[in-house]
Amino acid sequence: MLAIKQELHDIKTSISEISKKMEKITLNTTTQRDTDSNEPYRDSEVSRIKELNRKEWSIALNERKFAFFSALRNEEKAVIFEEFLSKEPPLIPRHCCEKDIKGWQDSTEWKSLKGSREKANMEHEINKMKTFAETHRKKVEHIDETFLNRFSHLDENIVKNLKSIWKKDTATEEQISRDLWQKRKSF
Question: Hey, is 187 helix, strand or coil?
Fold first, then answer.
């Protein structure tokens, strides 16, 4: 029994010594690679970092996608509503229309009051959409800044590569959002 305990102790110490040697080897190769500026190493390091942060990357990209689409949708709807309002007579969506009051709907006073209220409702709706669009644009910028700042402590070239991957991923999502808006535009 004592011999088995001694062998287990010897195995544990040899394993810890091997681990220490491997750490030294890893540190030496890492510093050599950094000084050589080996691009394949950097690509694999970038891929490794992205994979380690895959969940956060996906969540941030998804939040950004929804914020971008909301900004795009509100900007485009505001432009469409401005076109509706500039036509003569203006095209007023139902949700901006005033309801008729029994007995007053034929009155010229009511028609002028109703028309001015509907235009005011449309202008309010347009301003609201523009405000929402601006809010979502700021959210997109905030997501970009905060997500990419989490990698600022890494090597400059790795951060540059991560930023380019992030920009490529976000450009893809933005194009998907634009395509989706074009399909839904005929509301």
Answer: coil
